Amino acid sequence: MKIFINDVPLEFQLEEEESLGSVVDEITRWLAANSHNLDRLLVDGSPWDNDSPAWREQPVASVDRVDISASSRHEEQITRLETLGSYASLLRRVLTEGSDDQLRAVLEELPFVVEGIARITPDLAGLLEEPLGGIPQDLPDAETRARAAARAGEMANLFEHRQRELIDPEHEMGGTLAVLDALLPRFEEIPGELQTGQEKQALDTIARFTEVASRLLRLIPRIIDTHPALREELIEGEALTESLGTIQNFLAELEKAFRNTDYILVGDLLEYEMLPRFSAISSAVAKHMDNTR
Q: Which residues are CB-neighbours of 19 under 8 A, at least 6 positions away?
């Protein structure tokens, strides 16, 4: 039996697989482990029916050729982000200058887009429709349109940034580290600012840091894929991959303290928890990226 994936022959060694179903299951697992989805499968030119026992029980020896169409999850996500960005840009445009009929047509697609955002970028869920008060039943008034158009423009930019993170993570990580390294020295000043009436300056820095930290945590798994030795770097006594969970917990604690206006805790978390950890991460990531240039 010959197996082709996207017209490329696959060297597949049969072990205990005797039925066609067991072979397909094994290939599906192999594709998943390599971040691919099985989209279409032909058995000797006929479409595979996964629900048919006859297909699954067919002996391997009776099959001459299996053709598989597979797609990269990474590429699919890039394409979906592009689709979301295009919709957000279109929504901004029709909210600003479109006719009522055009706006009505675009808003008909909003529920599907909202569902896609929740699935692909769950941290951004709810943001696009929030200025509209959810999925609108009627056309919004002029003031609501202006707010929603501004948000749609912001979302289009966010989707574009997420695309770039997937397309060129090293470049995006380099820029992120530069911004982070400029922010970290400010952490020692924030407790004093919060206690001496300079809250705005301190809070602006914290908001910027939260944004940069989230981007860094999204990028690190992509950077580890190309720099696997980075996985073993120690961050405050933990391997980098383990420290990401610790950092997520501290970020959640920071957000809670921020909401409760517990500025003493905010200052302590930044100076004694975030500063050493993010300084160590920045140095480790930069070292491994520089070593391969």
A: 56, 57, 58, 59, 60
**Identity at 290, one-letter amino acid code:** D
Place of tokens 């990226």: 289
Q: Alpha carbon of 10 to those of 2, 68, 274: distances in Å? A: 8, 10, 47
**DSSP single-letter state for residue 134:** S
| 214-258 pLDDT, tens digit each | 999 999 998 998 899 998 899 999 999 889 999 999 999 988 988
Tell the residue number behind the tokens 């939260």, with chain if given.
210
Distance CA 221, CA 121 (A): 16
Is there a contact between 9 and 74 (Cβ–Cβ < 8 Å)? Answer: no
**CB-based contacts of 129: which residues, under 8 Å, 6+ apart?**
110, 114, 135
**H-state helical runs in the chain:** 20-33, 53-57, 73-97, 100-107, 110-120, 142-167, 169-183, 190-195, 199-226, 240-259, 263-268, 275-291
Angle between helices 275-291 and 240-259 in degrees, nearest 10: 140
Q: The pTM is what?
A: 0.73
Give the CA distances from residue 142 to residues 79, 129, 139, 278, in Å, rounded to whole numbers and listed in that order.
32, 16, 9, 44
Taking the C-alpha atoms of residue 230 and residue 281, their distance in angstroms, rounded to an integer, is 10
What residues does 38 pair with on adjacent strands? 70
Contact in structure between 174 and 289 (CB atoms under 8 Å) = yes
Which amino acid belongs to residue 140? P
